[in-house]
Amino acid sequence: MSGSSTDYAIVAHHYWNRPGGGELVCAAIAKALDSAGFKPVLVSPTRVHAEKYLEWFGIDLANYPRVDLGLELRAFGLYLRLLTWLPSATAMRKFDPSIFFIDNGFYKPLKKYKEGRIFIEYIHFPPEVSADPRYKQLGLYWRDDPYIRERYRGFMALYYGIYSKLIRWIGRDNPFRYADLVLVNSGWTASIVREVFGERPEVLNPPIAPSTPVAIDVRPYEGREDLVVMLGRFSEEKRYHWVIQEVYPRLKEEVSDVKLAIVGGAGTRTSRAYLNRLVDLASRLNLRVATNPSEEADLYLLPDASRVAIVELMDRARAFLHATINEHWGIAVAEAMARGLPVVVHRSGGTWSDLVSEGVYGLGYGGVEEAVEALSKLLTDRDTWVTMSRRSIERVRDLTLEKFTQRFHKLLQGI
Quick check: is 128 in a domain? Predict the structure, then answer.
């Protein structure tokens, strides 16, 4: 299928205001639709800051029309998903699009606009599995899944509990009854969707951002430091506290001069509170903490670092650690691999199944001792480092925006 110059395509996302994995996917979809001949319309309940995407990802969205509700919230992300259909309905009436793309399942009220249009849903993770106790047997119910349990504790458990009830009223019941094309980010997510809904969606792995280029000349082992890097927003489910308290002290016993750098977004009150908690934890452990990577320290906590600074840090390091359990994809891991950095990830989720192919392109662990063993090997064994660095580059060559666009076009033509 190809669009004419007058064809519009809605790209609906709940939050176009931060450089996260979901935002990268939606930006990439917009560019892919553009190259297929459609005019993307960026839709959100929050104000769309499209001008930031060139800086964040190297993707220019500035000239696309936008429809939003003007909200400037930097919190309540779960509830904003429930509102995405409202500006989408406005965009439907205003632009009469040929294609409607959305990356959440809360578009049930838009079914009346379905006739004559292609609906595409992208599933990062099916919320029903976390929210509905009928699916507890999958082990991913929100009270059981470490990915959610780590983040929504205490008062936040009430916040998530209310959300889990609301989605049963607002969400579509089965994506295959609403969408012409159902996409997911990983084979792991696809297997869950199939178990819940009885049909297998198409896997479309997220791309790496063009602003994180695949390294051509990877800095060699000898030119790097005994430095372990972690990347991702400052949030409970990233388990930075676990690494600082459990993994890093044990790792220092094996590699005495090893440093740990944690880089992440800290734009919300919750993320800043978590960052402060990490500072307090490091102080109790008598770790030297710095916010400047050129200073002498044990632990570097670097909020809201620039893309250039992140790339430079990865090029200095010898290993990348990802601590999240049941991560749905792991864009930060892909970014590290693009710099030729060997990665160590938890043996769960889409990161393990798709990104590192269950140990082919990266090392896995289940607990503290295995994580320390994998990191120690990369820090001290040159041959292992060279092998895994080469495999990192090999894997991400298939994850460029160009490859993503080609796959999406092929799926679109198959409708």
Answer: yes
pLDDT at 308: 87
Query: In sequence order, which residues have a C-beta less than 8 Å from that of residue 127 and are 6 or more positions away?
Result: 104, 105, 167, 171
Beta bridge partners of 346: 365
Beta bridge partners of 137: none
Whether the CB-CB separation of 265 and 235 falls below 8 Å is answered with no
In whole angstroms, what is the distance from residue 127 CA to residue 106 CA? Answer: 10
Same domain for 338 and 298, yes or no, is yes
pLDDT higher for 348 or 6? 348
Tell me which residue of 272, 270, 274, 239 sits closest to 75, measured CA to CA.
Answer: 270
Sheet hosting strand 363-365, strand order edge to edge: 289-290, 299-303, 259-264, 227-231, 319-322, 343-346, 363-365
Q: In terms of C-beta density within 10 A (0-12 exposed, 13-18 middle, 19 or more buried), how is residue 19 classed?
A: buried
Looking at per-residue pLDDT, the higher value among 77 and 367 belongs to 367
Average pLDDT on 157-173 reads 78
The helices-and-strands tally (H runs, E runs) of the chain is: 18, 14
Where in the sequence is the domain holding 141, given as residue range(s)? Answer: 8-207+400-413
64 neighbors 39 (Cβ within 8 angstroms): yes
CATH number at residue 173: 3.40.50.2000
Backbone angles phi, psi at 321, to 5 degrees: -115, 135
Both 61 and 203 in a single domain?
yes
Question: Quick one: how far is CA 23 from the chain centroid?
Answer: 8
The reply to whether 175 and 237 lie within a common domain is no
- Residue 131 and residue 157 in one domain: yes
Structure tokens belonging to residue 109: 């009220």
* Same-domain check for residues 147 and 167: yes
Please indicate, yes or no, whether residues 248 and 123 belong to a single structural domain of this protein: no
